[in-house]
């Protein structure tokens, strides 16, 4: 795990090393200062020698200035290294997520990924900052101060060593009991982020159903759970303070008692005892900082494990090293294809699909909720991988294509319309970044979107809010269709993407698609039979199987379910397929 995270340091290794080096030199000077103070007291102040006092006083001033300079340089290098490491880590995580397949995203919730990219990375950054500065400072200070203390009086210095086993045992117990709680807390954070995202996405629904109190109660329950666990962990961690105070004041009392007796007996000078007091403070402060590091590492260990888990996740979609770049044609063939999201043969979403679809065909797909309509078309651009059987596009298995080339050849308008904050023009150019104004206008005319765009104050430069919330459902759908048309795809998939437009506009869109993409294979998923009745082939799906297939007239004669849906829609009754 540490090696994996350390790869994100990259260009900030130099600053990390310099920070540690500056800290070590700063500590060396801080340890030398008490020794100079001892000589100042014993050789200057006690005898009243002003020359010694001036000389050693000047030396103390220079040591303090050098120590201050090294501290500033160390802090600067540490800030650059830790913030750069966190930036690289976030970038690595984000790049990793971009390579994920839909199944990888399904495994990690959206809220969980967001928490890893924000809270968890912030915890790791704080720990790294402490590691390259405090974790260097404390051991070096502890070692050098102990050596200096033994040099002054080895018997009194043994007092410090007696405190170490007690501190070590206390810290181990704190880490043992606190770490599992912190791990649990970060999982609850994922749940909390999920609730917030869900509430904000469905803000209008919450308001329209007057469910504010219910949502507040849900949030409060999860928030209370985090508070309860964090309080429990912090109570355990809080034992660190009293433990350190007990050791610190115990050592000072013992040192005062035995040191005073040694001064009276002439075995130690006053300057030596004062220097030992300084060193005991340095030693105990080092131990306190070390304990803080252990506590911080205990907290961030859970974050590091979660981030490493995401970095170690491998996409289930493997891009072949020498994948085919071009589709021979737009034919699609399903051969004994079965698929399950859980890789469970007992929970198949699609079962034994066998279809031959010639290039340039228009295929309509009808079926009830959960019948496998969206799953079927999502396999074509390899948003998921086929588990059993084969899926051929242009006579070639989709797994043999270069992923980018395959997806560039497939235009897809998903069931959930996704628009991004920015202008209409910027959103449309997702389909083709080099598209000129004329191409954009043609695509919008074909998608029946130009009329409402020109009515907006700024036309194609009008701003779209995140998710397109300032547009109607039908407007979002038409913009998404126009965006897909700009790709000039060989295969176009419309996944229930005209459900929010009226039937007249739907008919005009279908007619425009024939004219705009004459050789393109089109897959149209719809709930309205009027949207697919002119298709070359209509598939009726039920329970993940193709119940019937044929033209509209054939299905009216041979498929009772299709005829029942058609009759109910003609009479204006509720859609049976929904």
Please characterize this protein's 3D structure:
The structure is a single chain. The protein is α/β, with parallel strands linked by helices and 578 residues long. 63% of the residues lie in helices and 10% in strands. It has helices at residues 2-6, 13-45, 50-98, 102-107, 110-132, 134-152, 154-201, 203-208, 212-237, 240-265, 270-312, 373-378, 403-408, 424-428, 437-446, 450-455, 473-485, 503-516, 552-558, 560-570; strands spanning 332-339, 350-357, 362-367, 388-393, 396-397, 410-413, 422-423, 463-464, 491-495, 521-525, 537-542, 545-550. The strands form 3 sheets. The chain has a 6-stranded mixed β-sheet with strand order 6-9-10-3-11-12. A hairpin with a 2-residue loop joins strand 11 and strand 12 (545-550). Helix 2 (13-45) packs antiparallel against helix 11 and helix 6 runs antiparallel to helix 7 (154-201). The two termini are 48 Å apart. The model is unreliable at 573-578 (pLDDT under 50).
Please provide a brief summary of the model.
This protein has helices at 2-6, 13-45, 50-98, 102-107, 110-132, 134-152, 154-201, 203-208, 212-237, 240-265, 270-312, 373-378, 403-408, 424-428, 437-446, 450-455, 473-485, 503-516, 552-558, 560-570; strands at residues 332-339, 350-357, 362-367, 388-393, 396-397, 410-413, 422-423, 463-464, 491-495, 521-525, 537-542, 545-550.
